[in-house]
Amino acid sequence: MRLEVALPVIIPLFFGALTLILWRWRLAQRITTVIGTGLMLLSALWLLSATWQDGILVMHMGNWHAPFGIVLVSDLLGAIMVVLAGISGFATAVYSLTAMTKRHEAFGYYPLLHLLLAGVNGAFLTGDIFNLYVWFEVMLVASFALLILGGERAQMEGAIKYVTLNLVSSALFLSAIGLLYGLTGTLNMADIADKLSYADNPGIITVIAMLFLVSFGIKAGAFPFFFWLPASYHTPQVAVSALFAALLTKVGVYALFRVFTLIFTQDVDYTHEILLWVAAATMLTGVLGAAAQFEFRRILSFHIISQIGYMIMGLALFTPLAIVGGVFYIMHHIIVKANLFLVSGLVYRLKGTYELKELGGMYRSHPMLAILFLIPALSLAGIPPLSGFFAKFILIRAGVEAEAWWIVGVALLVGLLTLYSMIKIWAEVFWKAQPEEYANRPVHGSAGSGVLYLTIGGMAALTVFIGLGAEPIYQIADAAAHQLLNPSLYIDAVLGER
Amino acid sequence: METLMAFTVGGLFAAAIYMMLRRSIVKLVIGLVLLSNAANLLLFTQAGLLRGAPPLVPEGAMQPAGIVADPLAQALILTAIVIGFGVLAFAVVLIHRAYEVVQADDMDQMKDTDT
């Protein structure tokens, strides 16, 4: 029985309840939220180091042993994701200290934040497919409420699309679970993988695999299911946007990695070929959509989609190096993307708009912010020595080794177009002079923006750290990929030696 | 019986998708209700349909006698129904608020956030 496996789920649930009790005391809510997310980050780091040392950790809930009870399993991929959730949760909590207004905090922002983090961590750690569904729903319900916090018209419109497509995805997920249960008679993921390896009807398994692909594809924002994402991600408060951008789609990507390395590996030629096409189309549509946009957060939203394509590409190539690249890409992406959204929030705070054409002159007035934007932006585009360069380098090298030339070409082209979009933001927001007619709009000013600078600077430092210290990060990703490609490690850890 | 259920589930899915493709947001929510019920029924049917075979272990025995119904699937559906109910309650409140803000019941009027 390993307590640390459950802690990253228990801590946010506990602090969520605590902030509910402190509903009327805003200051106390803020303090407990920062403490709570900080503790969650620490417990996640503990979990990662324990998983690194002792291999895959399993906790049998209520001491009902697998495959009958629900298990929490922490393999390296899950532990890495929990750490990333901790980092982005903590950064969001600190950022919210000044970014959130009373109007939003009064309607339960902090309890919802904790609930969202609990759902995300639960999804990363569970070893039971139905439990995964339940955690998805916990996360979704919290995200629904966070999305409409504030009640603007754009938020309502965005939320309708977001809610509808996510509910369709959940219904498909549930149907796929039902079919899988009918086929194997078990819900434990390790047990399912074990049973399916003896199955002799590959046709129905492939059908179920495709249902999972569609369901998780919607959640991950993969082509052609991504429409809800650019319609909704630019509408909520920017701290919420940043958290969504960092975590929610990545839960979908994580689920894809989990089921397509552990469970559905019977017909790799077919399923992973489809994944590869999905990856290429996702990359291209995302980056082309971004090229057509002239609103800060919409550009960033479209770039989430194109980056999801890179992660799925790592999964689809299905060679050891490609999986390493996919895992590395997720680590790099969560930190960089959250940071870019946080920067956009600070720009909005200083200038009062997200429209590129109304912005300008920020390099002259706020050179520090300009540098802090440039670090994640260039990292996203893959400029060495920042984190994005190594992430793309590993993936493209894997593509070359697998002789999948066309996907390598697409990945390189999309990298170039990403640079175009980032330079567009740089030129419009920071470099050009601000048009006269927009210069004197009432804004928040720079009061209290020290905390915001601190958060953005911390995340930028992490980006530089991943870039300069790529070797240890690579080794962690390598070990995670090793576990993913040897499902017997996972199965033996959960079910015990048979 | 399974065949009948299969057709019911298929019909529910079809009706749900038809309703969701309409322009009215109220019909959208009806579509979501049908969709979650279709998924629940599918889960129910997958576990196998048996009449009058409750999964009870007789006193003193270690396992139930004969073939019994699968209780796990029913636990799953119960969970799924509760979750679906909560989420749908949220969706209804959401469309009500959206209706108040946008002053229209028409998806085509809600294109501000599209590109």
TrEMBL record, chain A:
Recorded GO CC terms: plasma membrane
Keyword Membrane among record annotations: yes
Membrane topology: Multi-pass membrane protein
Highest taxon above the source species: Bacteria
Keywords (A to Z) from UniProt: Cell membrane, Membrane, Transmembrane, Transmembrane helix
GO molecular function: NADH dehydrogenase (ubiquinone) activity
Residues in NADH:quinone oxidoreductase/Mrp antiporter transmembrane domain copies: 128-416
InterPro entries assigned: CPA3_Na-H_Antiporter_D (IPR050586), NADH_UbQ_OxRdtase (IPR003918), ND/Mrp_TM (IPR001750)
Segments traversing the membrane: 6-23, 30-48, 68-95, 107-126, 132-150, 162-183, 203-228, 240-262, 274-292, 304-323, 369-398, 404-423, 451-470
UniProt keyword Transmembrane, yes or no: yes
Pfam families: Proton_antipo_M
Compartments it resides in: Cell membrane; Membrane
One GO-annotated biological process of the protein: ATP synthesis coupled electron transport
NCBIfam families membership: PRK12663.1
Family under the similarity heading: Belongs to the CPA3 antiporters (TC 2.A.63) subunit D family.
Protein name: Multicomponent Na+:H+ antiporter subunit D
Organism: Ectothiorhodospira magna
From TrEMBL, chain B:
Transmembrane segments: 6-21, 28-52, 72-95
GO CC terms of this entry: plasma membrane
Chief place where the protein resides: membrane
Keywords (A to Z) from UniProt: Cell membrane, Membrane, Transmembrane, Transmembrane helix
Alphabetized Pfam families for the sequence: Oxidored_q2 (PF00420)
Bilayer topology annotation: Multi-pass membrane protein
Compartments, record wording: Cell membrane
Family designation: Belongs to the CPA3 antiporters (TC 2.A.63) subunit C family.
UniProt cross-references to NCBIfam families, sorted A to Z: PRK12659.1
Name this protein carries in UniProt: Multicomponent Na+:H+ antiporter subunit C
Organism, scientific name: Ectothiorhodospira magna
